[in-house]
Amino acid sequence: MRLTKRGEYALRAMIDLGIAQEAGRPVIQIAELAKQERIPIKFLEAILVDLKEAGYLDSKRGQQGGYWLKMPLEKIRIGDMVRLIDGPLAPIPCVSQNFYEKCSCPDEEHCGLRMLMLDVRNAIADILDRYTLAQVVEVTLRKLRRNGVPIPFSKPRPSRK
Length: 161
What we know:
Number of strands: 2
Oligomer: single chain
Strand order of the largest sheet: 1-2
């Protein structure tokens, strides 16, 4: 398994949308998201469309429009998003649960490489499926606060005059 740029950008965008939601700004315009993460806007737009079609996001056009999380943060598993964007977690097709393909090995049942890669796949899946977007957002916010870094997408505080 290798996380592509598309997968990386999808996860970063989802984390940002979760942070924005927690900061009181559930709707974020794509241009602001692209600027925050330094992602080409057209590339990000294509990624967000895929996430919307999968039911993770919703959107609205116009001046007050943007994207927002459609599902609760606690229901969004990191492993599911990675599979959606980048496909199988398995390093070789013969150990994939969702995208299995027979390998060229003459004895798949006793193949040492397959057994090793099955352990690798299971370890990756166990870790990615263990974490929800809520957990990643919470850890990120905790570290930002601890380090005194401004929370992205926070509503500006009214100035006192």
